[in-house]
Design goal:
10 helices, single chain, about 260 residues, mainly alpha
Amino acid sequence: MDLINIFVAVFAMILAVGIIAQMVSKLTHLPSIVFLLATGILLGPECAGLINPWLYGDGLRLIITVAVVIIVFDGGINIDLRHIRTVSTSVLTLVSIGVLITMIGSAVASHELVGLDWEFAFLFGALVAATGPTVIVPLMREIKVNNKIRSILEIEGVFNDATSIILAAIIFEWIATPYPHFGYGIVMFLLHITIGGTAGMLGGLMCVFILSQIQVITRPMVPLTTVTFVLLTYAFAEMISSETGIFAVAVAAIYMGM
């Protein structure tokens, strides 16, 4: 069997395992992420070895990027905007102070317990600070909570992921090419947020305008058109400044869901 057939067979097995995990989740009324993580570990290179992510080479990054973009968009567009005003303070606290506390706590723990140098400890802290819609959104679909808590967690999950990615990218750049001073890093972080937010607003605005004004786009074409604009929004933001695409997609999704 040549490499292409192996690639297709492994990809089909991953999809089949994902479907089975979703079915088991429905039967047991437990979040699907629990079964997806468990099967991934069991079938991965550390256990059974049936699925080897390195088989995909550079294609693995493409698959992960597209998947994360779609997941972030799905989480953002399904946010209940009616409750944003009532939870905005809580969300801002979670995606700012909450991320910093998690990052600093994780950095201190990894430095003291594992002995990582401080710069790599903070890079680790930024990476693990993300909660992400891949976990939060499935949990909210299975667990019955009031609308206020649901809105806080869903919005935090979408923006926390983007914030942590930007933080990790800036810290990595700091390690590779040290910034002149700490203030420069803060300016770069705010610049990333501004670029991502602007690109997201433009992408969302264009998508809403085209879907509402161009009559030749029929209902069956709407999902494909939307996904196209989401990917274009991500690519546009990344072309302007690296690691801003996820934040742009989150902003576009929330705007389109209004």
